[in-house]
Please model this.
Amino acid sequence: MITGGAQGIGLAIGRAFVAEGARVVIGDLDPVATDAAVAELGGPVYATGVRCDVTSATDMDALLTQALDAHGAVDVMVNNAGITRDATMRTMTEEEFDLVIGVHLKGCWNGVRTAAAIMRTQKSGSIVNISSLSGKVGMVGQTNYSAAKAGIVGLTKAAAKETAHHGVRVNAIAPGLIRTAMTEAMPPRVWDQKMTEIPMKRAGEVAEVASVALFLASDLSSYMTGTVLDVTGGRFM
Ligand code: NAP
Model:
């Protein structure tokens, strides 16, 4: 299961999972982009798409029920769906705050609790939440996003403690600057400023986040739960 899997980091995670033999279910808002992603992943044998707004518990429930009915198990849940509504606090509207908290924090909580309910009966499963470096250090213009992404870290650790004895692992990834539609919309001056902060002197590629998601999803990380892995090229280590 990958929420927000129709493009960007989520789609790259889908590619990495399918390459390792997984069957992927994408839950995303945009049916056209989701259909294109399913085709790119090799068609209905390898991937299916379900329209899902992660802020809706009903949608999340339907998404996971459909995945369970189709595949008989939910082994991996990646809570990746995201948006930004950047503005300094002086100009950020209450709606922009609520929207970002809703998609990231409540969306992740909906995904974690629904997947964990299935995985605890299976006695196995791995949940991977996509946080952000913004949640670790706080970024100007992102009081909504930084708060939501820091909240995902707390949620990850609390859920890891609640589910560990059921054989369920919950970990998070904190990407730095990754080249996607979300970051390419940034003004060049902001992009250049970020570049000066990165010891590796380049943005990350989506495949470089996907490989870490694959590690956390697989038994290669079988003794890891409640962790947050930075994928940042060394930025703000
Ligand atoms: P992206 O290219 O914009 O992809 C995000 C996907 O999430 C889109 O397909 C979007 O669908 C979907 N989505 C948005 N709201 C949704 C909702 N309510 N329900 C279901 N799906 C929804 O973004 P990305 O850069 O790949 O980011 C993926 C994740 O990584 C996000 O959580 C982001 O915060 C995190 N992250 C990204 C970076 C980076 O540098 N790119 C860095 C740190 C963390 P629509 O297009 O239809 O809205």
